[in-house]
Design goal:
Shape: elongated
Structural class: mainly beta
Number of strands: 11
Oligomer: single chain
Largest sheet: 7 strands, mixed
Radius of gyration: 14 Å
């Protein structure tokens, strides 16, 4: 089992910066791909950024050039550095991980509970 706890959310002005963290515990040695999702009120959850076990990153077009995803495997922690935030970045941000290898008898994916980011005009 893996437990994920997001932190770092809060209120930020348009154009400001914020860094989100996702701390993993449990069987963290098995963690492969890690992702950030977000969900705004009345909208579907959307993928924001992905980082693979070898460090390859991908981003949604809406955040590319503004957000940076990273991970520290020694600390079992993933980060989302947000710059030049926009009102449309307002959402609950969720941490997601996928486990490597065979996962029979246990979940292969895990979600955190989310952290609120609010961008004020």
């Amino acid at each position: 089992q893996v437990q994920l706890v997001e932190s770092g959310g809060g209120l930020v002005h348009v154009g400001g910066s914020l860094r989100l963290s996702c701390a993993a515990s449990g069987n963290t040695f098995s963690i492969g791909t890690m992702r950030w999702y977000r969900q705004a009120p009345g909208k579907q959850r959307e993928l924001v950024a992905t980082i693979t076990s070898d460090g390859t990153t991908t981003y949604a077009d809406s955040v590319k050039g503004r957000f940076t995803i990273s991970r520290d495997n020694a600390k079992a922690t993933m980060y989302l550095q947000m710059h030049t935030v926009k009102p449309e970045d307002t959402a609950i941000y969720y941490c997601f991980v996928g486990l490597l290898g065979l996962t029979i008898g246990r979940p292969s994916t895990y979600w955190g509970q989310g952290t609120q980011v609010t961008v004020s005009a």
